[in-house]
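Quick one, T. Sequence first:
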Amino acid sequence: MGGLPTQNTSTLALPGLQQNQESAKPTTGVESKPKKKICCACPETKKLRDECIVQHGEEACAKWIEAHRICLRAEGFNV
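Structure tokens:
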């Protein structure tokens, strides 16, 4: 009976430990790399941004430009 609580607590503690280790990994720079190339990330916001810029000019499309930047940051890019 004494072994069961130890096994349960260690399994419950593992996700927390993994999260702590993962939060420390991005400082190394190796694990924080995006999984996609920047040209292939966020195709929806990229299309809207590009169409707006072509039709209205960059100054009129700040909303779409920022939306694309937010999406890229969520993918792990520093923009």
